[in-house]
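Incident review: delayed structure delivery

Summary: a single-chain prediction request sat in the queue longer than the usual turnaround. Root cause was a stuck worker, restarted by the on-call engineer. No data loss occurred. The affected request and its eventual output are reproduced below so the record is complete for anyone auditing the incident later.

Affected input:
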Amino acid sequence: MKLHLTLLLCAIGVAGAARAELPNQPVERIELDRYLGTWHEVARLPNRYQDDCISGTTATYLRGEDGEIVVRNACTADDGERLSVDGVAREVVSGSGNLQVRFAPRWLAWLPVWADYWVLDLDPDYRWAVVGGPTRKFLWVLAREPQLDPVVFDGIKTRAAARGYAVERLWVADTLRTDTTTRVADRR
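Output delivered after worker restart:
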């Protein structure tokens, strides 16, 4: 019996070692000017900041007159109201996907309250991006168009899972909904 248990544990260990995990880290290179513009949320891990958002979520990044990166997140609530919040982003490591964002009012800009915003996975043509952070509590799948090819989305989920994200908890936009995904509006 002990021999069987030992062999089973060894087999599990070898199988786990054979599966290469991806590091949870930002992409090394990003052309920020190509990243700017509007992104549509295709999927996300549930988070308290977006509890009222049920559809049409977008993130728009623009360069302000002073060179600052301006962020506008917008979505549609249950009652049809369009909600938005403005913030700023900054590079932590220049030229990489290691960014931070802040959504505090301007009069609180002096506070050092920034959230990690790591671009983890990025299409070479900047058609889609995956954003997370060091805690793996947040994950967004973004695309330039509201729709994303399901095969591409499956690859994104596979890589995110290999980075340690709970992709089985993803809320998926209606544009990608299948019988096995959870629609944002169905979460309540």
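Verification: Confidence is low (pLDDT under 50) at residues 3-20, 181-188.
Action items: add queue-age alerting; document worker restart procedure.
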